[in-house]
Amino acid sequence: MKLEQYQSPAAFRAAALETLLRNEAQNGLMISFAQQEAGPDKADWFLAAVRGGDGEVKLVAAMTPPYPLTMYEPGNQSADAALGCLVRSLKDLGLRPPGVLAEAGLARRFASLFAGEGCYTVHMTETILRIETIQHHGAAPGIMRPMRESDLYFAPFWAAAFARDCRLSARECEIAYQAERLRRFLERDELFFWESGGAPVSMAASHRKTIRGAGIGFVYTPPHFRGKGYATSLVAALTQKQLDVGYRFCFLFADAANPISNGVYRKIGYVPVCTFDEISFAEHAGS
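The chain above was modelled as a monomer; its predicted structure follows.
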């Protein structure tokens, strides 16, 4: 087994994209990395593939600090020799991922090899869901509309609350951090609200595109507006918008422990693809 490290998204794209497209919804995050342009902000990215003696890709891995390492084994078939090669290479390079985000079995095998038993914590288990055709559902009163500049007076507070609900990092729970993130969403026309009675009541984004698919995420409804079907209607409308402009499918991540959000997505017509674990490592892990 041999690890190949790529110095640019373009090189990573040339080497790994064909493999990643075998499960496009599952690999949306790494496909989005491969579609980026080179730049100084990506100097510390780790983009790699492990090839076997036959020249075939056995494992793809990527890390964009400060976020966790993410990986894919073609067909979700265990490739223990390739995984061992990746672990050894990371340690030889002095790279210490803060955690890992990958198909659940792969994530736990990597954590055991890299960090050791007892030196990691499963932060969250998520289900990746996919849809090609919207199912009929009872729409809530209101309409979907794009984000406006004036929404920045309240939306960062919603976004910070979303981050807290998802148990994200302290930095991602900061209002200032989310205000900057929302400005980028606004510039790219990626964030939308469900508006009812003249007021925004739910938000969602379509902010990760693959070759044939569009990712839906950042779904949040303030507590006092929940249980009224607003998120269901917004996700359905935003999904349909992406399908209407030519994407073959949409995909999203849902907290596997949250039956409400999973129920919302399945009601619309989303079906499970696989389960991901997000794992964090103890500070000394991998040393």
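The longest strand covers residues 120-131.
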